[in-house]
Amino acid sequence: MGREATSREDMCPHRLVLEHVTSRWGVLVLIQLLERSYRFSELRRAIGRVSEKMLTQTLQTLERDGLVHRDARPVIPPRVDYSLTDLGREAAEQVRSLARWTERRLEDVQEARRAYDEARTP
Question: Which pairing describes strands 68-73 and 79-84: parallel, antiparallel, or unpaired?
Fold first, then answer.
């Protein structure tokens, strides 16, 4: 890890964790892993439209933060499963609550957007 990343962590560690949990792919990974543990390829298919590189980076970040557990089994072919830690489950439940709220209130948000746009259209 470079000097820049370390200084960001030192300045606002809680904000950095919040960024990881609420990132585009972080949210989807956490919510998906609430169901069960997944192998990498299964998780990628379940989430959809995420590159292998981005999913790998997201999983590594969440693992480093203590939210995701990586279980690598020495079998042939190698098997790696990802699951939530207790801390990760707690975070995922919070994120899922926010996701459910957005689903419930989407019409209200869309109406607010229409009103905003109409008020600014000459």
Answer: antiparallel
The number of beta carbons lying within 10 Å of the beta carbon of residue 92 is: 24
Contact 80, 39 (CB under 8 A): yes
Q: Distance between CA atoms of 121 and 94, rounded to whole angstroms?
A: 37
What 3-state DSSP class applies to 78? coil
Lowest mean pLDDT among 12-21, 26-35, 44-53, 88-97: 12-21
Q: How far apart are the first and last CA of the chain?
A: 50
- Please say if the pLDDT value at position 94 is more than 60: yes
At 23, is the secondary structure helix, strand, or coil? Answer: coil
Amino acid letter, residue 59: L
pLDDT band at 67 (very low <50, low <70, confident <90, very high): very high
